[in-house]
Structure prediction request, 662 residues.
Amino acid sequence: MLDAEQWQQLLQGFLEEANDLLREAEDCLLVLERSPADSEAINALFRAVHTLKGSAGIFSLEPLVALAHHLENRLMQVRDGQCALDDRLTSLMLQCMDELNVMLRNIDPHSGTLPAHSPRQVELLAALETIDESAKQPAAELPVWQLSLRLDAELLRNGFDPCAFIRYLARLGEIRALRTLTQALPCLQQMDPEQCYLGFEITLVSEASRETIEDVFSLADGFYNLQLDCTTPAQSAAEPAAARLPAQTLAPAPVAEEPRAVQGTSTLVKVAAHKLDELINLVGELVISTAGAQMHAMRSGDGDCIERVQAVHQHVEQIRERALKLRMVEIGETFNRFHRVVRDVSLTLNKQIQLHLRGGDTELDKTLIDRIADPLIHLVRNAIDHGIEAADERLAAGKPAQGNLSLAAGHDSGMIVLEIEDDGRGLDTARIRDKAIARGMLDADSQLPDSDIHMLIFEPGFSTAEQVSNLSGRGVGMDVVRSAIDELRGTIEIDSTPGQGCIFRIRLPLTLAIIDGFLVGAGAESFVIPLDMVTECMEAPAEGNGPLNLRGKPLPCIDLATHFDLGQPPASRRNIVVVSQGRQQVGLIVDHLFGELQTVIKPLGQLFRHLNGISGSTILGSGQVALILDVASLFRDLQQRSEPKHRPSAAIPSLSGEQICS
Prediction:
């Protein structure tokens, strides 16, 4: 029998598969809404729901099985051409998918049980049952299936219950006869309670296909032998079942040398996310240790030692790159979920919107994928609600009635770039400015460029909506977007053209665990700048930290020692590190340039998480703590300092590894 750990693994595997199946089913439904005659999508949808029902039946999740069973019956009628998949039926099926998702989340992770039917489930079952009744065949016309089932001796040890298969068969139709074969049972003293000795002869009246009946046992592949024979009711009455079954099927099934599931070759291995996190953490510690070894080797002056440590460093860097790639997943799966979001919001607002996806094969760290989904939903809903006009307004403006919304992903300068673009009305700059002045966010005589005014929509509580609705008007959402992107060490930009549309552009790092950094010093403190943001370095002039002329363009500068109130006198010779964010550049004035290094990011402790301009910390090879600069935050701080209203920077107290790293 399965122990507790094996049971948990089996249950977790079911939940992961079930979630994948529901996503696949929902995607197929949305495809069918656009192309109702797509037979491939219909078959894929039917298989997904059928497999989900079968897997849930093995765990005796009766409420989930019941809803999936009624949904499957309705899909069978669609597949067989007995009814059309219209908008009403599509909406009902999507509601069923939502409820199945709720039921999966409600499964007890320890016992694997599911609460009884909720009122919502009863409502959906009634709706599906009403539709099903209109297309059922008379019972007398249903085929009669004879099943000769022989179970492998190892079936029980592998976690399968023979009764679960029979209970599930009863949901496909009516079991007219059931005979248990006990010839293989030994005497009581010789019986092994973990060994299966049984077989069954079953008469089943059902409209299910041969494939559907065979799929009932598919999870136990390799641990059973099944023979099927189908007859009409008249044949069933005239001829005994045993006469129609091949003689060899009455013998016990041979023990399979190896389950079919592992006989073929597979290029994919599922690994729990926490195991990958543990691997990345260990690689991070290896990077720190290697940096310390390099520093020690350089101080020793031993050429042979330096060469060997350098070789180890190269291998560690390769291991780091391979480990990080293990966590990279394509963003296409996340993008595909927005078909449902766009559909539901469009129906709510009575707008016609076509979603376009590009760059779905772009890979991101799994942690980034999980955490960027909610900000993307906010931006998509905002584009549909505020950006894209209603059909009559678009026609009056000379646009097609159907609006267009696109999600795109790609790479740029070592960053991941996500774009949410619509062809709507664009941002109303004057209205945003008036609202900001009314709320005291701007002085009436301030002269800000349009791009800076547009960024005010990310301020907490800011909204230009005239009416409060379920989608907008409460001043929440867009500030959450920027906060979430800041936490991911990313940035967001807005390109808006009145009457033509708007683009929200998000830039994110490739990973959150280990980055290539550039180490600098200011006063007695060390700081790390993400290397992909560094453009160039130069000697700082003696006249201070005002804007400089960089090849004919003004370069605003930030003195890190002054910004963080470090309190030490500046060095006699100082340097400027030019960093870029999109089309913007700023110079960071520092005392020392130490060069490139691999940086293992450690989160800040609770005491230091309020610091503006700091995104994390790292441990250098010497054991010293270095702070990782939040360049996006420094850009915003510089921008606010140039405006009448701005927030002061926080000073950095004396630092230690125990205080900073959580």
